[in-house]
């Protein structure tokens, strides 16, 4: 019935910012996925007889790995698996299902915003019983185990039917529960937001355009925006999840959502444009004629969250990843609530949320979320925006400019250099680290370096320390440049340069972002010698 299959380790199964991500052909090597799934189970304790949630973003290879994971869960002694119909669960929905049904944990199959298809990306990550990504202690254990693994356990029953909702007892006794991927999540959104107010706004002619990017949020967005909130048919576009996302890069930024972006900047723009990524945890927010940077969005949502029923009692605190702009800090300061700065990646927010220290969290990479789940949540952010717009009765542009008037504007941009030679990228970062002690006091044009460091995070709850989380160069007056290498890519290295300047003067809030940041961009180049070290004249993507 259950087999123990001998295997040999792969040495490259180190989880990155958000799980293990590799090209599909890497995952298709013999026992590759099995090795990693067994390494996950071997790093956990006490799951016998318990429930495991399994789902993914529907990308190429999703169903195959789900079948493997179900059979391996059975052989390893789980009592039950809950799987989204068709193998579909958005990342935030999976987080909610784990919490709602008190599952032991969950396996989410996704490479998020990375492209999908036979030669593109796939990924596996494990979430713990609070619904959030496994902390570093567990991901380190998985990696260690993957380097010594010599066998895995798998049940040898036939593939299960993922397309029929219902419960089944599988040979060997494990219960398989195939659930509607949308229902529980949509119900949670109805609890948090004033659907009546949003429905009313839409019925008065407020037009929304949501781009599902042929990824996992399509079915969720159709149900919520069109069925429950009454948005006209067609408000949700690209709503069919496709294994290759229609050949697109499902990263909701103005570059990869260009069509929507251009439409929102055009004459006949809808009132509100939004999109999400491959697995549904990111968001893009565009008002008529105005793109809202994710860092501003976090600050504005935090400042106005009390207008939504789920947050009417106010926020306990706000947390943001270190490279995210300081716009949210100003809201926290004004409200007298806690502000926490964590390394990049949602796994660092879990403890703060569990301890009730933070209510809203966000990242500059289009991730915003709250204590309702333990992942960032794309549709949640869109709905909170809609709830705020419905209550305030103002446009996105008005809300953003008023926010800047009240708090000042944090001009912000991220420059990504993708597909770099790994050695060149590592050399660039090493060189930055070697300058940390000599940079303070140096001038770059009119900018003076006040402080330079390599960000380290001391978790206030479990006291763990995470080092080397990004090189920060802080200038007098509050401007800064941050450098770090991506931990989600699957080929070569990606350098991310995060650039920020604070401008309190509202007569200077209408400068084009790259222009407002020009001297910092030049300083970043002089400090890091990006051109010389990478051979690149310009970033691949500017957001
Ligand atoms: C990127 C983002 C980070 C985000 C991570 C996962 O990581 O910068 O903020 O948490 O992706 O997002 P990195 O290491 O490439 O910079 V998702 O939506 O891809 O799960
Ligand atoms: Co994602």
UniProtKB/TrEMBL annotation:
Pfam families to which the protein is assigned, alphabetical: PGM1_C_vert_fung (PF24947), PGM_PMM_I (PF02878), PGM_PMM_II (PF02879), PGM_PMM_III (PF02880)
Domain of life: Bacteria
Catalytic activity: alpha-D-glucose 1-phosphate = alpha-D-glucose 6-phosphate
Domain Alpha-D-phosphohexomutase alpha/beta/alpha: from-to ranges: 13-152, 184-286, 295-407
CC cofactor: Mg(2+)
Keyword RNA-binding part of the UniProt annotation: no
GO molecular function terms noted in the UniProt entry: magnesium ion binding; phosphoglucomutase activity
GO cellular component: cytosol
Enzyme Commission identifier(s): 5.4.2.2
UniProt record, GO biological process: carbohydrate metabolic process
Top enzyme class: isomerase
Keywords: Isomerase, Magnesium, Metal-binding, Phosphoprotein
Family the entry assigns: Belongs to the phosphohexose mutase family.
Name the UniProt record assigns to this protein: phosphoglucomutase (alpha-D-glucose-1,6-bisphosphate-dependent)
Lineage: Bacteria, Pseudomonadati, Pseudomonadota, Alphaproteobacteria, Hyphomicrobiales
């Amino acid at each position: 019935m259950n087999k123990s299959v001998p295997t040999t380790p792969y040495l490259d199964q180190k989880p990155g910012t958000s799980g293990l991500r590799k090209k599909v052909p890497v995952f298709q090597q013999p026992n590759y996925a099995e090795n990693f799934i067994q390494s996950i189970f071997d790093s956990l304790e006490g799951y016998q007889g318990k429930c495991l949630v399994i789902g993914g973003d529907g990308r190429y290879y999703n169903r195959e790995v789900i079948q493997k994971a179900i059979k391996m869960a059975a052989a390893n002694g789980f009592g039950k698996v809950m799987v989204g119909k068709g193998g579909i669960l958005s990342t935030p929905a999976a987080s909610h299902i784990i919490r709602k049904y008190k599952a032991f944990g969950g396996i989410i199959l996704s490479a998020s915003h990375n492209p999908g298809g036979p030669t593109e990306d796939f990924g596996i990550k494990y979430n713990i019983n609070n619904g959030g990504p496994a902390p570093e202690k567990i991901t380190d254990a998985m990696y260690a185990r993957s380097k010594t693994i010599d066998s895995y356990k798998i049940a040898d029953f036939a593939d299960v039917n993922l397309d029929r909702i219902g419960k089944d007892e599988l040979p060997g006794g494990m219960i398989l529960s195939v659930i509607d991927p949308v229902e529980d999540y949509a119900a949670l959104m109805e609890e948090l937001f004033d659907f009546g107010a949003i429905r009313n706004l839409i019925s008065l002619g407020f037009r929304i355009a949501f781009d599902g990017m042929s990824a996992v949020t399509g079915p969720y967005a159709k149900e919520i925006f069109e069925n429950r909130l009454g948005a006209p048919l067609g408000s949700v576009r690209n709503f069919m999840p496709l294994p290759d996302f229609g050949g697109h890069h499902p990263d909701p930024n103005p570059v990869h959502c260009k069509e929507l972006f251009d439409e929102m900047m055009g004459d006949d723009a809808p009132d509100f444009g939004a999109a999400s990524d491959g697995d549904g945890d990111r968001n893009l927010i565009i008002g008529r004629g105005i793109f809202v940077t994710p860092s501003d969005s976090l600050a504005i949502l935090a400042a106005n969250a009390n207008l939504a029923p789920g947050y009417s009692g106010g926020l306990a605190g706000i947390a943001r990843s270190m490279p995210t702009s300081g716009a949210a800090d100003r809201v926290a300061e004004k409200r007298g609530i806690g502000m926490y700065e964590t390394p990049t990646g949602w796994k660092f927010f879990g403890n703060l949320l569990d301890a009730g220290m933070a209510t809203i969290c966000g990242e500059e990479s289009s991730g915003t979320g709250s204590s309702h789940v333990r992942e960032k949540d794309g549709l949640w952010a869109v709905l909170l925006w809609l709830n705020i717009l419905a209550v305030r009765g103002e446009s996105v542009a008005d809300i953003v400019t008023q926010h800047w008037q009240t708090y000042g504007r944090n001009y912000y941009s991220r420059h990504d250099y993708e597909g770099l030679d790994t050695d060149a990228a590592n050399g660039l970062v090493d060189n930055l680290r070697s300058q940390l002690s000599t940079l303070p006091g140096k001038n770059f044009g009119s900018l003076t370096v006040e402080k330079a460091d390599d960000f380290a995070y001391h978790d206030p709850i479990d006291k763990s320390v995470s080092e080397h989380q990004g090189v920060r160069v802080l200038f007098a007056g509050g401007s800064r440049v941050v450098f770090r290498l991506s931990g989600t890519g699957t080929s070569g290295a990606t350098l991310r340069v995060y650039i920020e300047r604070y401008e309190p003067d509202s007569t200077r809030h209408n400068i084009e972002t790259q222009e407002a940041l020009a001297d910092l961009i030049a300083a970043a180049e002089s400090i890091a010698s990006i051109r010389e070290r990478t051979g690149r004249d310009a970033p691949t993507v500017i957001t």
